[in-house]
Specification:
41% of the residues lie in helices and 18% in strands. The chain is an alpha+beta fold.
């Protein structure tokens, strides 16, 4: 990935199945970015806006439904859109929500095929959008397990729909993080459980049964990130969620997420997310749910 490309740290935690964010707005203001989660984006009344997915760019119509795979750069820009009220519903879910073994079963073969294709981005046909839009709009009315079942049903119907378009060129390669390491997985499990505490390199090195130097090298080779950067991103993800869900002060959010210095938290947050914690909180004026 290019260094100036924003890696979005979503508020989705390992305990969630998916998150849905619904809002009305008059412009697109989020920069070109990528994240490790799948994203299904429904947009209405934004004719003339510009979509960028991978190396593909085009002006969109008044109805839009796109599935973006993990770590694929994407963004929507206002461009020629004049609409005063754009409707956008974004659904994000973990790339391991569907286990690989489960995806190999006959009944999920179409979903597996769709997930493989969306590593390049998929635009669904107008006919498909019109058929499924009411269910996507009403998804935030469902609760608990019913929400998960409905999302799976929507994904299945999308996977068997006709005339879907692959957006990005095959030659456009994105950086995929496949760790293939139980040590790395165990480290992330530990970081996700203890992010609010003071975690040291020596601590996680012992957990992996390696020396500090060996573990640092190994972790970076497998993840493309330093241990400290990964811990910071996990903490920022939890902080993002608290900023959205709670009325805690910025300082309380920082301390609850393992940051011992408020000015340091503000500086790191702005560097990683392109805005201050307060600006981030103010931007979430729509409805956000976590399932």
């Amino acid at each position: 990935m290019k260094k100036n490309l924003l890696r979005e740290i979503t508020p989705l935690t390992q305990s969630d199945c998916f998150t849905l964010f619904s809002r009305l707005k008059s412009a697109f203001d989020f920069p070109l970015h990528y994240h490790e989660e799948f994203e299904l984006n429904f947009i209405e009344h934004a004719k003339g806006a510009r979509r960028v997915v991978g190396d593909h760019m085009e002006e969109i119509d008044d109805l839009e439904l796109v599935l973006v795979g993990p770590n694929l750069q994407h963004a929507w820009f206002t461009h020629h859109c004049k609409s005063p009220e754009i409707r956008e519903i974004t659904i994000q879910f973990h790339k391991d929500l569907f286990d690989e073994k489960l995806l190999r079963r006959n009944q999920l073969s179409f979903i597996k095929s769709m997930f493989d294709k969306c590593s390049r981005g998929i635009l669904f046909s107008r006919e498909t959008i019109l058929a499924l839009a009411p269910r996507i709009v009403e998804l935030n009315q469902k609760q608990g397990f019913d929400s998960v079942l409905e999302l799976m049903s929507i994904l299945h119907d999308l996977s068997i729909s006709r005339n879907m378009r692959i957006l990005s060129d095959l030659s456009f390669t994105t950086e995929h993080f496949t760790y293939n390491s139980r040590r790395v997985e165990r480290t992330f499990e530990y970081l996700n459980k203890n992010f609010d505490k003071n975690i040291t390199l020596a601590e996680v090195s012992r957990l992996a049964n390696m020396s500090d130097v060996s573990f640092s090298r190994f972790f970076r080779q497998r993840t493309g990130n330093t241990f400290i950067d990964s811990l910071t991103e996990i903490r920022l993800g939890h902080a993002s969620r608290l900023l959205i869900e709670s009325t805690n002060s910025i300082a309380e959010v920082a301390y609850h997420c393992g940051f011992n210095n408020i000015s340091n938290f503000n500086r790191i947050f702005k560097k990683k997310k392109g805005c201050t914690p307060r600006e981030f909180r103010d931007s979430f004026s729509g409805t956000r749910i976590f399932i």
